[in-house]
Design brief:
Structural class of chain A: alpha/beta
Number of helices of chain B: 12
Largest sheet of chain B: 2 strands, antiparallel
Helix content of chain A: 40-55%
Strand content of chain A: 15-25%
Oligomer: heterotrimer
Number of strands of chain B: 2
Order of helices and strands of chain B: HHHHHEEHHHHHHH
Chains: A alpha/beta, B mainly alpha, C mainly alpha
Number of helices of chain A: 11
Number of domains of chain B: 1
Strand order of the largest sheet of chain B: 1-2
Number of strands of chain A: 10
Strand content of chain B: under 5%
């Protein structure tokens, strides 16, 4: 029974702890992310949510604790190595490459095998062919978010909403085992928010696993299979949206004690 | 005689074009603020000169080894400095260039210090010495090869990663790119071609000394790529052309040579400052005309 | 050469580097950019003092005052014509560093043009110097050390005790808050540049007196001064003093072991080591830098 359960857990966080200059940003943090589900992480501002993302992806090193991704201990691995294992993230403040086009932003995540010097210089034919094949694949993701017409526009020339969509598309294009989305609908208008919600549900149905930080409660409740609530650096509650909604500790955290 | 003068200018343009192209790869495309690029130029020049003078290597082998030595030196510089942020990298590379010049000046047993290395031989091709127009052809060939290779690299998916690193290192790493590896490679390749340019210079002028490779040279090369448009391979060549030709009229004025040197320095520096202030995109803006076609 | 002589030489050089380093750190605190213009001011002051005193024959104190006026004016011009436009355009720090380099080259170029390439000197009588405790120190060098010492104390008191000094420190911590609290940001910026120019000018005049003048004299001194401020912790003005002394001492003691020609390289090797292992410097305040990868 235990083994069966372990197989379905894509990510396991144990006793995670991180302090910045004496202030405990994250402490005693434990949770698991189940495969093929959408899990959301909520909590008041300053609860430590983005820090948790940073700890998982290797941008910050925890003071204590463990992070297991697909059964492997990824603590201390460099950011790019963790990403290559299939763990992708987006950022709260959009981090697209402004002077690359929408399509190029996506191609970047797909062209690993042709992005080295040897192939570039010795095998230009392979570069060309792989690039063309990748273009097809990337167009699929652009279509998914409705940006195919903007494929040759520079990322910096897209509107805010389009940039949000592109950032999500780029994360999805990695086709990683776990995709972390940091406030994917932060600051977007309701129509776009519903659009994004549909895209994410569709992606989940295709077999992806999503772990989302969000503030928008409506969005969270409508999309999540499981909700994890953090406050002041610790997990105070987890469960289905309904369970969490009625939890006293959660209400206290948001409304103040 | 006008002909000889023009050939001389074009040879210099060609050599600086190679320098500008090489720096463009590291700075313009990858965002590495290498203010000490002249150090690679110097290593290449001295290596080539010493190999031909002391060990009687033929030019054709010396120039390649010069490039390789410069590349190795680039690797040595890269290892400690590549992870420094922006202007700290600038200061560190500047410091390295000064150390290099200092070593060249003081390691007299190898480099003859401030006396320099005179009598650097011209290349020989099937028994004939190459000079004048022949040398121009030589430089053009090397410049063309440099252009071709660097252009190919920057327009490839590999070049796209370099650009992404320039724009946002953290995002690039978060997407699986080994940022340190790419930055190091960019610097090493850039150093290689600068070394080639150094060799071409040494065998053309026949004399080099530590003073040839001062920081003003680095600033000059940076100005070339800024004027030409950062990350624009064609622009690098245009920048070289403009900056080499611009102060030439001074030569014909009846003023003492230190004054020509001074005015030349003022022109280069003032042009740089002006461009930095006036360019609406700031230093890393590319021309709106799309450079990297996909 | 007695070891004590090297120490004294180190202190003399260190005092100059410390002045330059303080100048850097003051500017960095206010505009948060690395700026090489103290180098230009250094040379300007030296040559102005020379021009007023030796060429025009004015008495030395007058020449110094005039030289200070000239340098400070140049500094304010540089700030107004070059730095403010760049800052307003939200240029990145490398742009400003590069521009300041350009400014340095322009100023040096003009000095070369105006004064020519020959080395100049104030022609002070060459006295034997006092022999104390195994080292020799000349009158000029004593004046140099005392002047620097007085300036550092004055600077320290100014920053700590006066209203202006406190305003400058407030601005360095947080410009927005400072302006909300009623600090006149523009005025304080100008005063900072004036103060920084004053420090660099004194350094230039002292070096001109002690050694000689040539148009490129600013280059190495400035970069070593920058090194000193990085070592102390860029932006930390009191630490600049320590950084300067360290560079001066290590450099001069270093040539006990190395051929003297390598002296200049020593400072930069120290710089590179610090940038790699301790970019914050010894007493660094804010960690602005992030390492990559």
């Amino acid at each position: 029974m235990e083994n069966l359960q372990k197989k379905k857990m894509v990510l396991e966080i144990k006793n995670l702890e991180k302090s910045f200059g004496g202030v405990k940003a994250v402490s005693n943090c434990n949770f698991k992310i189940e495969e093929n589900k959408i899990t959301t992480l909520i909590g008041p501002n300053g609860a430590g949510k983005t820090t948790v993302f940073n700890l998982i992806t290797g941008l910050e090193k925890p003071d204590k604790g463990h992070v297991h991704f697909k059964g492997q201990d990824i603590l201390g691995l460099e950011v790019y190595k963790i990403s290559r294992l299939g763990l992708t993230r987006t950022f709260q403040l959009i981090r697209l490459f402004p002077k690359l086009t929408a399509l190029e932003n996506l191609l970047l995540v797909k062209s690993r095998e042709i992005e080295n010097l040897r192939t570039t210089i010795l095998n230009p034919r392979k570069v060309k062919d792989t690039e063309n094949a990748n273009k097809e694949r990337c167009l699929h993701f652009l279509k998914l978010v409705g940006l195919e017409e903007k494929k040759n526009s520079l990322a910096e020339n897209l509107s805010f909403g389009q940039q949000k969509l592109l950032e999500i598309a780029r994360a999805l294009a990695t086709e990683g085992s776990l995709i972390l989305l940091d406030e994917p609908v932060g600051g977007v208008n309701p129509k776009l928010r519903d659009n994004i919600r549909e895209i994410l549900i569709k992606i989940k149905e295709e077999g992806r696993t999503l772990f989302i930080i969000e503030h928008d409660m409506n969005f969270v409740m409508n999309i999540s299979d499981k909700v994890i609530v953090m406050d002041e650096g610790t997990v105070i509650c987890e469960g289905s949206p309904k369970e969490v909604q009625n939890n006293k500790k959660v209400l206290e955290a948001y409304l103040g004690k | 005689m006008i002909e000889a003068y023009l050939i001389h200018l074009l040879i210099l343009v060609g050599i600086y074009a190679i320098l500008a192209l090489s720096l463009n790869l590291a700075m313009g495309n990858t965002g590495l603020l290498n203010v000490g690029h002249v150090a690679f130029y110097a290593v290449g020049a001295y290596t080539s000169a010493l190999l031909t003078l002391n060990l009687h290597f033929p030019f054709w082998i010396a120039i390649i080894i010069a490039g390789i030595f410069a590349a190795l030196f680039g690797l040595i510089i890269a290892i400690p400095t590549i992870r420094l942020r922006g202007d700290y990298l600038a200061i560190a590379t500047l410091g390295s260039a000064i150390v290099v010049e200092n070593v060249l000046r003081n390691w007299t047993s190898l480099t003859r210090g401030p006396l320099g290395l005179p009598g650097i031989p011209k290349p020989v091709f099937f028994g004939m010495q190459i000079s004048g127009l022949g040398y121009l052809v030589l430089v053009i060939v090397f410049a063309a090869i440099t252009y071709f290779i660097i252009n190919h690299i920057t327009k490839s998916p590999y070049g796209r990663v370099l650009k992404a690193i320039r724009e946002d290192e953290v995002a690039a790493a978060s997407l699986g790119k080994n940022v340190r590896k790419y930055k190091t490679q960019a610097l090493v390749i850039s150093a290689f071609f600068a070394g080639i340019a150094g060799s071409l210079y040494a065998h053309y002028i026949s004399f080099i000394d530590p003073g040839t490779f001062g920081i003003l040279e680095s600033i000059l090369i940076i100005s070339m790529i800024i004027i030409g448009g950062l990350a624009s391979t064609r622009g690098a060549i245009i920048g070289a052309l403009i900056l080499i030709l611009l102060p030439e009229p001074l030569r014909f004025l009846p003023i003492p040579s230190f004054a020509i040197g001074a005015i030349r320095q003022i022109i280069y520096a003032a042009l740089l400052v002006l461009i930095l202030i006036k360019r609406p995109q700031g230093i890393f803006g590319e021309f709106t005309k799309k450079e990297n076609g996909t | 050469m007695a070891f004590t002589q090297l120490i004294v030489n180190g202190l003399i050089a260190g005092a100059i580097y410390a002045l330059i380093a303080s100048s850097f750190s003051l500017i960095f605190n206010i505009i948060k950019f690395m700026d090489l213009s103290p180098g230009a001011i250094f040379v300007t002051a030296a040559f102005s003092a020379y021009a007023f005193n030796i060429i025009l024959g004015l008495p030395f104190p007058i020449a110094v005052i005039l030289a200070l006026i000239v340098s400070i004016t140049v500094s304010l011009l540089i700030n107004k014509l070059v730095y403010q436009p760049l800052i307003n355009k939200k240029s990145n720090s490398f742009t400003l560093l590069l521009a300041s380099f350009g400014v340095f080259l322009i100023v040096t170029g003009f000095i070369l043009l105006i004064f020519g390439a020959e080395v100049k000197t104030f022609g002070l009588p060459i006295t034997k110097g006092y022999e104390v405790l195994g080292f020799i120190i000349t009158k000029t060098q004593i004046i140099l050390i005392i002047t620097s010492f007085i300036i550092f104390i004055a600077l320290h008191l100014f920053m700590k005790k006066t209203k202006l000094g406190k305003a400058m420190r407030a601005m360095s911590d947080n410009k927005q808050v400072a302006s909300i609290v009623g600090i006149d940001v523009k005025k304080i910026t100008n005063i900072t540049f004036i103060l920084a120019a004053f420090l660099a000018s004194i350094a230039g005049i002292l070096v001109a007196l002690e050694q000689n003048l040539e148009h490129n004299m600013g280059f190495l001194v400035i970069l070593k001064g920058l090194t000193a401020s990085v070592i102390g912790g860029i932006g930390n003005v009191p630490a600049a003093l320590i950084g300067g002394l360290i560079i001066g001492l290590v450099e001069n003691i270093g040539i006990w072991y190395l051929p003297s020609g390598y002296k200049d390289a020593i400072a930069f090797v120290i710089l590179i080591i610090f940038l790699i292992f301790r970019p914050k410097g010894l007493f660094g305040t804010k960690t602005r830098e992030e390492n990559s990868g």
